[in-house]
Amino acid sequence: MEPYSFTSSASMAQKTWELENNIVSMDAPSADSDSIFFYDEAAQAKFQQEKPWANDPHYFKRVKISALALLKMVVHARSGGNIEVMGLMQGKTDGDAIIVMDAFALPVEGTETRVNAQADAYEYMVDYSQTNKQAGRLENVVGWYHSHPGYGCWLSGIDVSTQMLNQQFQEPFLAVVIDPTRTVSAGKVEIGAFRTYPEGYKPPDDPVSEYQTIPLNKIEDFGVHCKQYYALDITYFKSSLDCHLLDLLWNKYWVNTLSSSPLLGNGDYVAGQISDLAEKLEQAENQLAHSRFGPLIAPSQRKKEVSVYLSFFYDVPTLKSF
Fold first, then answer.
1. Does the predicted TM-score (pTM) go above 0.90?
2. What InterPro entries has UniProt attached to this entry (predicted)?
3. Domains of the chain, with CATH numbers?
4. Distances (CA, A) of 222 to 31, 120, 160, 193, 248
5. What confidence tens digit (pLDDT) does each residue in 173-230 have?
């Protein structure tokens, strides 16, 4: 009875995960559903020669990620805990979209704030790509991914430099960031896909991006570089051919998920969020108190001012209790 219960629960959790992340099934046979899995080497080579992105820094606007690649990246990101991990993505291009078919981890040394690839990682990268081509997988590397455990999906100064270098020599190239801590807390994958602008390019005013909280100790790094890259729209897909591999990988993911509930497993993260909010409140109150009219503001009014200040400068939602 227990194995059945486990299988049933895992299957239900997998379906919920797919619904939460809006994963589109490509089971129905059609020209569009078949073409996404077909690699046209000649068409890709022609696209590389034309380089339409060279004249338009905002050329690529969309990313399509296979459910298998997404789950691989999430499992890898979660395995690192509070340490950043890194890997590469393989796929192709289709007009203004980059399609990610697969992903693989890299043996890199990471810390809680950065991850760096060494010589052995580059050797592994080359060997893996060559072996893939020998096995009939012709997709090229189209980007890299790494994790930001607990502090959101954006590019740091080092990330921006890395991505700029990659776009200079390996176009088309994409940067993906996954937050495994927030993924476990929310149930939905916390992910972002980005491309950097050419050096010296001044982007037009971007529309307001989706809300996310940035820790106080990361705000400066975020603010300095946030105009040097832009986010791409992300969608996910799967096919019946992926189902068996997806089931096997899901069982591994599901076992790890069972071992820790969001409430208990993310206690440190929640405590850190509360501490970070307290620091932002204190800093906002101090800045308002030292402003020209700070001493004249009544305490109740000052709380409202602090709430507005936080929502504007720190991406903290307006506090309803104020």
1. no
2. CSN5_C, JAMM/MPN+_dom, JAMM_MPN+_peptidase_M67A, MPN
3. 2-261 (3.40.140.10), 266-313 (no CATH)
4. 42, 30, 11, 15, 37
5. 999 999 988 887 666 888 999 999 998 888 776 555 555 565 555 555 445 567 889 9
